[in-house]
Amino acid sequence: MDQTWTVRDLPVLRAIVELYEETGQIVSPNQIEAKTGLAAEVVQSALRALDSEQPPYVKKMQRYSSGHVVMIGAPTGHARRAVGAWPTAETIADRLVSALHEAADREPDPERKGWLSKTAAYLGNVGRDLAVEIGATAINRQMGM
Known about the structure:
By secondary structure, this protein is mainly α.
């Protein structure tokens, strides 16, 4: 079976999030087709697949009695995180490790350079859980939790 997430579902979900961000209004399959270049039947298949996901990717999908999706409501936080529009603890951890590597590359002092490199290596490998916990804490603080 061919994988549908990267070639069909993710591009459609990304289009839903982008179109909603641009307009603040419900999205139509025609808009998704224009944005993605995917055929109507491919977009419909993706919308059916996305509609069955729990937690949901969109607040509501309106259909005809035939099952054909005609309107797509606002994307949820789950959708925004899936397309990278909102951070996850994992993406924050990846950014932290990347920033430490970049800082080590720029650091002229060999001792500091070594510490930065070792910290990045630790958080990128065996300390990954700690880095993800740091990311989760950062997200929670931004949300006022």
